[in-house]
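Hi there,

I know you've been waiting on this one. I reran it after we fixed the sequence typo, so this is the corrected version. Both the input and the resulting structure follow.
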Amino acid sequence: MQKLKINDEVLVLAGKDKNKKGTVKSINFKKNTVVVNGMNIVKKALKPTQENPSGGFSELEKGLHISNLAVVSPKTGKATRVRIEEKDGKKVRVAVSCGSVLA
């Protein structure tokens, strides 16, 4: 079971978006990167094409390394680690700091 899932609220621990909160958009487990809504926005140069004859720049969200993120506890609203426990025969994710079950 994975400790991070899509639509989790996370806190950025390092980088240019440090101390900002956002939701997980996508996860790449091969590269250990996570795309978070509104974080790590970079400008990419676009060549002129038939659809866009002028070319120009576009802004897009790049992935952040998974080690630079922490899940936000639903009870306290602070960053926490995640532990996997077995309750009623099912594995569930639990916030270490407050013990609340993550959806």
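Quick highlight: The mean pLDDT is 95.

Best,
R. S.
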